[in-house]
Amino acid sequence: MEQRAQSAPKPAVSKKKKVPDYLVKDLIDGVPFYYPGYKQVLSKKKKPEDIMGWSGLQGFIIAYFTELLIKGLNLNKYKVLPGETGNHLGYKNNLSLDIAIYERSVLTPEKITSKYLDVPAYCVIEIDVQAEWEEGSSMTEMTFIGLKTQKLFDFGTKKLIWVLSKSKKVIVAENGKHWEIIDWNEDIELIDGVNFNVGQYLESEGINTDDDENRPSNT
User: What pLDDT, on the 0 to 100 scale, is given for residue 14?
Assistant: First the structure.
């Protein structure tokens, strides 16, 4: 599967009140993408903190990758930053990254401030599409994946891994190469010989994701 650069669809014209900035997860070419459930916050059915956290499964997968990378990577060469690190790519482009792997030669000490990072991650891992868009937009999950990935590639990121828990698939995207869609039960190389297998790991921990659809939601 090969993705080409895409432009963000223009948001639908709406007379609804402006969504507060704190509910915006990603901003791409000036188009806001919100935390899932943002409409329930606007209608006061939920509080902001109710929608901004990961699910238990997503948190578990992120912990798996973080532990794997800390054990397997050369930490003199790389720095692993999990936890929705904010990245400023340029004017009207701010992205939140689930796990970002930086080369220390790029992420130098003077780049660490109270503001968003403004240097490209070498590799990014995203767990699911944690974003919603305004009604009337032509955006789809795959369009969003392609848009966010290409924006990171244009900024300088070399590789992006999307772990999709509903379909149990992993999208491996490398800049300038064909994308791969792989079953998450297979061994997949992350970077520098570090391999991962999400399905096998969850099974070894006794976690069954087959019946997630039947579990009660947090509503």
Answer: 44
Alpha helices (H) in 88-192, listed in sequence order: 141-155
Q: Do 154 and 6 form a contact (C-beta atoms < 8 A)?
A: no
Cα separation, 93 vs 63, whole angstroms: 27
- For residue 181, the model assigns a pLDDT of 97
Say how far apart CA 33 and CA 54 lie, in whole Å.
16
Whether pLDDT at 10 is above 60:
no
Q: What are residue 188's phi and psi, to 5 degrees?
A: -130, 135
3-state secondary structure of 14: coil
- The DSSP bridge partners found for residue 123 are 101, 159
* CA distances (Å), origin 133, targets 28, 137, 197: 12, 7, 31
- The pTM (predicted TM-score) of the whole model is 0.85
Tokens of 217: 């939601």
Please, are residues 137 and 12 in contact by the beta-carbon 8 Å criterion?
Answer: yes
Q: What is the mean pLDDT of residues 62-88?
A: 95
Average of per-residue pLDDT across 146-173: 97
Planar angle of CA 80, 64, 74, nearest 5 degrees: 35
CB burial of 39-60 (b: ≥16 within 10 Å; e: otherwise) equals bebeeeebeeeebbebeeebeb
